[in-house]
């Protein structure tokens, strides 16, 4: 790991927190500047994706998500469903040709009644690089999608170090080529995968909801 990549991880509790903070040095988990998708060209291709926010489990404590405006307070259903398009922070649908290998972006379910947004990481790698831990039947054209909500303490997984997805709060690390398995830090389980495919027009769509509960169990 390079010095630059360490510096990029401003959420490390030993370093000053840039942007919204929780008073203890961590990026605030109650803020999400999701419209400001940023790309930084630092050593090892470190990229910062989206912002920092909080959202607890979608499986049970839906009320926690209401605090961050992810779901309508009355909503109890799935976040994604079959044929729901994945869209970027500007609401634009993602076409098969939009990402290159190695890219990572934050996407959301296309808005519909009661669903405002739900942050999801979309990665693209050559299909042959994925290991069996990734549910390959739920990837398409090298694309795989995972929840952006860290299962440790619900920060956003907002940075990357090479291919590794990094949660800046406690340096949780996930390998998207191995089903977003935990490869560093305290998270207790992988990032849940979202099953995706391509529409007839070549846009990324979900084929169902996340394959595991999202957030902190
Ligand atoms: S909240 Fe992500 S590593 Fe702790």
Automatic annotation (TrEMBL):
Residues 132-205 form the Rieske domain. InterPro entries: Rieske_2Fe-2S (IPR017941), Rieske_2Fe-2S_sf (IPR036922), Rieske_Fe-S_prot (IPR014349). Residues 1-15 have a biased composition (Polar residues). Residues 1-29 are annotated as: Disordered. It holds the Pfam family Rieske. Keywords: 2Fe-2S, Disulfide bond, Iron, Iron-sulfur, Metal-binding. One of its GO terms (molecular function) is metal ion binding. This is Rieske iron-sulfur protein. The lineage of its organism: Archaea, Methanobacteriati, Methanobacteriota, Stenosarchaea group, Halobacteria. The gene is narB.
